[in-house]
Amino acid sequence: MIDVFISHSSQDQALAERVVDLLRSALNLRADAIRCTSVDGYRLPVGADSDEQLREEILGAKSFVGILSFISLSSTYVLFELGARWGVRKPLAPLLGPGMTAHALRGPIAGLNALSCESAAQLHQLVRDLGSVLGIGPEAPQVYQAQIDAVVYSGAAVPEQLKTRQPTSGSSNAPELTGPKAASAVQPETEDEPSDVDAVIRHHCEREWPDDFSMRAYCIQQQREAAAKLRLGGPVDVPEDVLRGIRRKCATQWPDDYAMRVYCEEQQFAGYRKVI
User: Fold this and answer.
1) How many domains does the chain have?
2) Deepest in the core among 162, 230, 255, 271, taking most CB within 10 A?
3) Is the CB of residue 134 less than 8 Å from the CB of residue 63?
């Protein structure tokens, strides 16, 4: 029996693959316990009767994650999978893709509580909730934090015309940063006052973990380490003008999340090395 069935559009393959990586790392799931039909290693067996096997797994999987994007909600297959799962009243976890809000949901799933792939806190909740359904205790958060970051960062790749808000890891209703906090948020290449950086970090982690002090403490530690790494400068093989452009881009996308800035920069550095 499949433990986790991940319903998604094939055009959301990159995000689906990151969700698979997250669940495997956090819950120690075997590859054959997950079905994700567009991701290598998790596809249907060769020669399988696709419609029949999908029907059995959609209805029989212990848990079901529906990745809901602007694309997937226009897919007949995805809507069929969601409707079939909803109809058997088994665990169904709607996961909002980048730029999506619950207001975009229609039909029966509109009444289900959906989590967002753009919120680290909500991804941690997804892991805990799926672990509860499967009877599996998740690993310590630091074991799979990189996979959390990878899912959150996937929002930065969504075309702007499809997005309803900018890719930040916190709430879209968060207070705007002003004064020295704003300066430190958009100018990572300068030496900010430690007190300003720490204030940004504390504000970010309080918003991410309002009632979980253990995770807030971990968040603060992670963000401080990331801010310290940003102060070390860039790789020696990346020209100064390229470095400034990358830092400006990542600071704009992640104004109050230093950990995601580090991840963003590392992805950009890797891309730069492939094109030179």
Assistant:
1) 2
2) 255
3) yes
